[in-house]
Amino acid sequence: MKKQHIYEAAAELIASNGFAKVSVQDIADKAGVSPATIYNYFGTKEQLHADMLEFWVNEQIVAYEEILASNRPYPEKVKAIMLMESRNVKAILPEASLPSLPLLPEGSEDRLQSFFVRLADEGQAEGYMDRSLTDVLLLRYFRMYMSELRHISTSGSQAEQEAAVDQLLHLFFYGLMGQTAIKAADSDRG
């Protein structure tokens, strides 16, 4: 519980001020512990950051899994996950520009890939994605869209970000042609 308090304090301070500007003392004060406690648990501020990211990524994967397991229609699941990812990227984005700090903890990329493969499998099973596409290609497609979320998450209000995610989702499911054009092309071929 104490570690979680420290993670939360560190995440909030780092997200608002950047890693370099936050001291162990700042984190300790915010978490209500002594700096010695932080050093005893983590050794260094860098290790605290790495452990905090790992904890945070695991929490996000659990949240994504809950969405995937829900009874929502598939497009709503994807939208909820993309909105969460947009907010998540915003929370860690300032750290992405620091070359000495990893964007994701070791092993997290594999867990995220595994999740997105299951998300794609469900999309294929429900007919939202072409069944002939490979997991490798689908992962690239997801990455492309998740990468774009970095830009969405850094500008505009919450409502503007959600509108941008809606447009991105439209592109995600229908491409540049749009749903109406795809249906028309399908009926012309049929």
Overview of the molecule:
The protein is built from nine helices and no strands. By secondary structure, the protein is an all-alpha fold. Helix content is 76%, strand content 0%. Helix 4 packs antiparallel against helix 5 (74-96). It has helices at residues 2-17, 24-31, 35-42, 45-69, 74-96, 108-125, 135-152, 158-174, 178-189. The relative contact order is 0.10.
The separation of the N and C termini measures 61 Å
* Beta-strand segment tally: 0
Supply Rg: 20 Å
Structural class: mainly alpha
Assembly of the depicted chains? single chain
Helix content: over 70%
Largest sheet, strands/sense/barrel: none
Query: What's the helix count?
Result: 9
Shape type? elongated
Order of helices and strands: HHHHHHHHH
Strand content: under 5%
Low-confidence stretches: 93-102
Describe, in short, the structure shown.
This protein is 76% helix and 0% strand. By secondary structure, it is mainly α. The longest helix is centred in the N-terminal third of the chain and has 25 residues, at 45-69.
Task: Record the SSE blueprint.
Layout: H1 2-17, H2 24-31, H3 35-42, H4 45-69, H5 74-96, H6 108-125, H7 135-152, H8 158-174, H9 178-189
